[in-house]
């Protein structure tokens, strides 16, 4: 009887620890998503470089695919002035050393002298690699209404 009680206590403690770990990871991924948005808005390619894996797969909202280097070059060369890049909704699911962030992103800015507002549904896949989380894949789809 004692053995069964001990096993139940250990099982509950393990479950609680796993939940705390998932919550901690979700917090880290939320912070990385915010960092990505701010770095993109300000054109900070150094910050973007630090959170994107070298082999990342970037699928843009127009269906084109970019390498990390192509993406960073496009951010550096962009003539768009991003005024707001913010998630309207963000959910993070944790699967061991992989986390999937999905949500809706609102982007406001000015390009070629014309203001624009876009909403995109996105999916970012993060991998715990070494001591850091890095984004290994991202996909954005425009929301047209």
Encode the helix/strand succession as letters: HHEEHEEEE
Say what the CATH topology is.
Nuclear Transport Factor 2, Chain: A
Total strand segments: 6
Task: Give the overall form.
Answer: globular
Low-confidence residue ranges: 5-10, 12-20
Radius of gyration: 19 Å
Q: Could you say how many structural domains there are in total?
A: 1
Count of runs of 4 or more consecutive helical residues: 3
Helix- and strand-based class?
A: alpha+beta
- Helical percent range? 40-55%
End-to-end separation in angstroms reads 62 Å
> What would you say the CATH architecture is?
Roll
Largest sheet geometry:
6 strands, mixed
Q: What is the top-level CATH class? A: Alpha Beta
Strand order of the largest sheet: 2-1-6-5-4-3
* Average residue-wise pLDDT: 85
* Strand percent estimate: over 45%
């Amino acid at each position: 009887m004692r053995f069964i009680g001990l096993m139940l206590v250990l099982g509950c403690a393990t479950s609680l620890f796993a939940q705390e770990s998932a919550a901690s990871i979700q917090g880290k991924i939320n912070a990385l998503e915010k960092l990505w948005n701010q770095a993109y808005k300000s054109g900070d390619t150094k910050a973007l470089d630090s959170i994107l894996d070298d082999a990342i797969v970037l699928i843009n909202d127009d269906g084109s695919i970019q390498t990390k280097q192509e993406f960073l070059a496009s951010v550096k060369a962009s003539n768009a002035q991003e005024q707001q890049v913010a998630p309207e909704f963000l959910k993070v699911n944790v699967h061991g050393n992989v986390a999937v962030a999905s949500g809706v992103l609102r982007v406001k800015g000015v390009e070629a002298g014309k203001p624009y507002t876009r909403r995109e549904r996105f999916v970012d896949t993060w991998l715990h690699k070494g001591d850091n989380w890095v984004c290994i894949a991202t996909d954005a789809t425009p929301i047209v209404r």
